[in-house]
């Protein structure tokens, strides 16, 4: 590891820890609130979709966990990271730290919350119901792929926000639509065949699909295929984000 890389990761670690401490300082439940947030959302949506709307899916709570918890991580990370360069402009101009340090710290903060919330959700399901299998030990694989993909997308959007300040409004609107257009609370099979291309071109679906294949009854081949598709999606997003960044990085400080 080069000296520059060591400094980058040291600064990222310090900012991540500082962000976590400042967020939960002087709160009654602190970290518990962040972990319980997806649990409450999960419980309400499980009740509405399975009991009120009668979505007929076996082990529906497992299906919902596999889609909803990663979706919450994606949407929260993108909304919190899109304006990170603009909001951190004074710090970037005052201290000799790469803008990517601030982005990395924000994403790592959300990854910690995501992993904790996901673990708690699966633990409650394991205690209260049946359906979980040994395959959950493979969860680190889709989590790593998802984290890379979300970081790349956040990197791209944060760069675009510097030059196009409407980006954060567009991403909020797109996520609101995406929640209903992405098979999160309903299976892909429910989408009419003539409209499934909308799912196939949705990068967020490909990032979430490995969780559904692993947790909700998919076989080994389905999981391997969905993981490969997610890895390819993450790689493409990373390539796009890095290309935009390297073309525009020298102009960031003049626009923030």
How would you describe what is shown here?
The protein is mainly alpha-helical and 256 residues long. The protein has one domain (3-255). It contains 12 helices and no strands. It has helices spanning 3-24, 31-52, 60-81, 84-87, 89-94, 99-128, 140-163, 167-181, 196-200, 203-215, 220-248, 252-255. The mean pLDDT is 87.
Summarize the structure.
The protein has helices spanning 3-24, 31-52, 60-81, 84-87, 89-94, 99-128, 140-163, 167-181, 196-200, 203-215, 220-248, 252-255. It is mainly alpha-helical and 256 residues long. The protein is globular, with a radius of gyration of 19 Å.
Number of discrete helical segments: 12
State the total count of DSSP E strands: 0
* CA-CA gap between termini: 30 Å
Q: In total, how many domains does the architecture comprise?
A: 1
How would you sum up the major sheet?
none
Instruction: Return Rg in Å.
Output: 19 Å
Helix content: over 70%
Helix and strand sequence: HHHHHHHHHHHH
Q: What is the typical, i.e. mean, pLDDT?
A: 87
Low-confidence stretches: none
Could you say which structural class the secondary elements and strand pairing correspond to? mainly alpha
Sheet-strand content, in percent, reads: under 5%
- CA-based shape: globular
What's the SSE blueprint?
Blueprint: H1 3-24, H2 31-52, H3 60-81, H4 84-87, H5 89-94, H6 99-128, H7 140-163, H8 167-181, H9 196-200, H10 203-215, H11 220-248, H12 252-255
Task: Name the features.
256 residues, mainly alpha, 77% helix, globular
